[in-house]
């Protein structure tokens, strides 16, 4: 099973696709957004991802109770949802420039649309794939709109039940679109390692017959690296510059150097995972002498009986395999053998 995003082929026979999530880390400046794109490329990301919405397309400008941000939220200072999304959104008028810049440096770029109008905009920009945010997984009109594009769809599951995932996949497939990647996700900012349950990645593949991956909201890189070891085909991690500037998502995002280190660790994990192989590796063959084999421990004359007094299973492993030990006991030697000789089948009358 494979899914292609631009020139990136994603699947079990291909390297994990590592996506840098820009989100609101641009801090309201397009110059910073452009720097993030270049930094992500330099740090080894395969793609950069945006979020496409306006405050009005995602919520209401209201101070009624339902729209007030709770005191335990990391974004409490923004007071209401409209203010938060106004502060965090990536302006629509930036999108064309950001897409052009990413393509210019050969970095794949796609986005998370939060409503149908965002899909229309992204289609005009030839967006190669769509991410569905955790909170939108039951937004059926949005799922239908995206499914109709026939482009790859990445579903995040941080706020979904098993039934939600099943319905979302069924909805997408009903439009003949089977280009689906489902991401294990924990929607908390930041989220704790003990709540990641990365074993779910392989279960998602088995139960839903899709590619799977991980959307990482933890601090640090260990969870993403572990996810690759668990079979993740795509990793998404919030990406920021190393200038320590505070942005809407900076408190749980990863900087340039750490992201680069994470990508390298992921590539090292992939090397160590390799493929199913029961053969002895080339370099391991040099250690075969540490195995045991059958050696002559006392001189044996031609025609003399071979017994436990004149042969033993010892190191190194250049002689006859120990699996033949019982078979040759009591047999006669075909020729004279000296202490220290390798016992070989051709030396035994069978």
Structural class: alpha/beta
CATH fold title of the largest domain: TIM Barrel
Uncertain stretches of 5 or more adjacent residues: none
Radius of gyration: 30 Å
**So what's the CATH class of the largest domain?**
Alpha Beta
Number of E strands: 14
Q: What CATH architecture label of the largest domain applies? A: Alpha-Beta Barrel
Whole-number total of structural domains: 2
In DSSP terms (H or I, runs of 4 or more residues), the helix count works out at 11
Major sheet summary line? 8 strands, parallel
Strand neighbour order, sheet with most strands: 5-4-3-10-9-8-7-6
Comma- or semicolon-separated keywords:
alpha/beta; eight-stranded parallel beta sheet; TIM Barrel; two-stranded antiparallel sheet; 350 residues; Type Iii Antifreeze Protein Isoform Hplc 12; 2 domains; 29% helix
Describe what is shown at a glance:
The protein is α/β, with parallel strands linked by helices and 350 residues long.
């Amino acid at each position: 099973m494979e899914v292609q995003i631009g020139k990136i082929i994603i699947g079990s026979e291909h390297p994990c696709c590592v996506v840098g999530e820009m989100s609101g880390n641009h801090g309201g400046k397009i110059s910073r957004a452009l720097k993030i794109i270049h930094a992500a490329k330099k740090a080894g990301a395969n793609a950069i991802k945006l979020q496409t919405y306006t405050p009005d397309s995602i919520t209401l400008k209201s101070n009624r109770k339902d729209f007030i941000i709770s005191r335990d939220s990391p974004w409490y200072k923004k007071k209401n949802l409209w203010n938060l999304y106004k502060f965090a959104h990536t302006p629509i008028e930036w999108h064309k420039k950001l897409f052009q810049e990413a393509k210019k440096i050969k970095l794949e770029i796609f986005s998370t649309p939060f409503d149908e109008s965002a899909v229309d905009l992204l289609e005009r920009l030839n967006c190669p794939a769509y991410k569905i945010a955790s909170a939108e997984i039951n937004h059926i009109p949005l799922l239908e709109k995206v499914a109709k594009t026939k482009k790859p769809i990445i579903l995040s599951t941080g706020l979904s039940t098993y039934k939600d995932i099943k319905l979302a996949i069924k909805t997408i497939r009903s439009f003949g679109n089977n280009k689906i990647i489902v991401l294990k996700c924990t929607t908390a900012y930041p989220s704790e390692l003990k709540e990641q349950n990365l074993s779910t990645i392989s279960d998602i593949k088995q139960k839903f017959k899709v590619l799977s991956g991980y959307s990482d909201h933890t601090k640090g890189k260990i969870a993403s690296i572990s996810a690759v070891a668990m079979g993740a085909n795509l990793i998404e991690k919030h990406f920021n510059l190393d200038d320590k500037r505070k942005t809407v998502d900076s408190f749980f995002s990863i900087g340039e150097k750490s992201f680069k280190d994470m990508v390298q660790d992921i590539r090292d994990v992939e090397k160590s995972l390799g493929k199913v192989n029961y053969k002895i590796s080339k370099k391991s063959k040099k250690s075969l002498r540490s195995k045991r084999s059958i050696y002559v421990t006392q001189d044996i004359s031609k025609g003399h009986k071979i017994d436990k007094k004149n042969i033993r299973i010892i190191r190194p492993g250049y002689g006859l395999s120990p699996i033949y030990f019982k078979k040759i006991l009591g047999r006669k030697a075909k020729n004279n053998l000296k202490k220290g000789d390798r016992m070989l089948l051709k030396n035994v009358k069978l």
